[in-house]
């Protein structure tokens, strides 16, 4: 039993959960949507990809952008505990949070009016509306 330490639900709005101030890390398969949502909310990741793009996304998160840990071994309680402690309690996790916040800030700029993503979406909408 969880004894008040957690709550299990059938479904939850992932980005709203990630935006909550009590979330210190996101254990994810690293699908592109999950990866983007984690970056948009500034939450470091514990990566456990299965196949396809998840493998590449996890490599970028862990090895290029360096705001995640890759669970590569057989998933065991001790390994998961160590990963959580590294991300949430250790200096390494603080560095991850600093790096992900830099990318989050850049993404926020792109999504605001005048930002590159905002303008690209506006252009796409204009194109469709021209028919």
Automatic annotation (TrEMBL):
Keyword terms: Transferase
Record keyword Manganese present: no
Metal-binding as UniProt keyword: no
SUPFAM superfamilies per UniProt: UDP-Glycosyltransferase/glycogen phosphorylase (SSF53756)
GO molecular function: UDP-glycosyltransferase activity
Protein name: Uncharacterized protein
